[in-house]
Automatic annotation (TrEMBL):
InterPro entries: Ribbon_hlx_hlx, TTHA1013/TTHA0281-like, Uncharacterised_HicB. The lineage of its organism: Bacteria, Pseudomonadati, Pseudomonadota, Gammaproteobacteria, Chromatiales. One of its GO terms (biological process) is regulation of DNA-templated transcription. It comes from the Bacteria. This is Putative HicB family RNase H-like nuclease.
Length: 113
């Protein structure tokens, strides 16, 4: 199964292709609930993304719910002790905190993707 993303109006969906059913499935990320959609062609998938997103946003508005899940900015990262020690050393050598090093690494990875 391959994975890709599609964007619409500031929302991102992870797209997976299932060769067994010859169908794409999209799942909109970062929502206060779930919204997915299906299509056999990219054009059909785009149309279904629009329909699914519009329905989700209308439902949220109707019930007074914020559509996007809010991120706190905090998360726990588990590393091997060796990698943790290397990261601490690298942060100290750069004169920054370990949090700043991790933030820099995540930003770099997102830019590269």
């Amino acid at each position: 199964m391959t994975m890709n993303t599609m964007e619409l109006d500031g929302y991102t969906a992870v797209i997976r292709y299932n060769p067994e059913t010859d169908e794409f499935r999209g799942e909109i990320q970062g929502l206060n609930g779930g919204a997915d959609f299906y299509g056999r062609t990219p054009d059909e998938l785009r149309r279904e993304f629009r329909a699914s997103l519009d329905f989700f946003l209308e439902t949220c508005a109707k019930h007074g719910i914020s559509p996007k899940k809010q991120a706190s900015g905090k998360f726990v990262v588990r590393l091997s002790p060796t990698l943790h020690a290397q990261a601490v050393t690298a942060a100290q050598a750069a004169g920054i905190s370990l949090n700043a090093l991790v933030e820099r690494a995540v930003h770099h990875e997102l830019e590269a993707g």
